[in-house]
Amino acid sequence: MEREREIQNFNHTLTMVERKNITISGVKKIDSFDSEEFLIESVMGYIVLKGNDLELIKLDTMSGIVTIKGLVNSVNYLDDNLNKKQKENSVITRLFK
């Protein structure tokens, strides 16, 4: 509970360099990831990051910072009103393509 309160106080930033490296701050947790998609919960809502050859480089759970490398094709923020079942369905659908 204390850790979650600490992360919520962090600012949220997203820095991308040449679509190859991306650093995101204000990350609460990574719900799922593979080489083509990351589902990340941040203080500003859920983020879906899609690309090719994506790789988790650094995860700093104390400061809520994530660094990912690979070719980034899209970054989308999911609507805060999106319920958890819809989020889970997108992950399950992707698994059973």
Please summarize the sheet with the most strands: 6 strands, antiparallel
CATH architecture: Sandwich
Give the strand tally: 6
In round numbers, the mean pLDDT is 83
Topology (elements, then pairings):
Layout: H1 2-8, E1 14-17, E2 21-25, E3 27-33, E4 37-42, E5 45-60, E6 65-77, H2 84-95
Antiparallel strand pairs: 1-2, 2-6, 3-4, 4-5, 5-6
Kindly describe this structure.
- It contains two helices and six strands, in the order H-E-E-E-E-E-E-H.
- It is an alpha+beta fold.
- The protein has a single domain, classed as Immunoglobulin-like, CATH 2.60.40.2000.
- A six-stranded antiparallel sheet has the order 1-2-6-5-4-3.
- The chain is globular, with a radius of gyration of 13 Å.
Give me a quick take on this structure.
This protein has helices at 2-8, 84-95; strands spanning 14-17, 21-25, 27-33, 37-42, 45-60, 65-77.
Give structural attributes.
single chain, 97 residues, alpha+beta, Immunoglobulin-like, six-stranded antiparallel sheet, 2 helices, 6 strands, 20% helix, globular
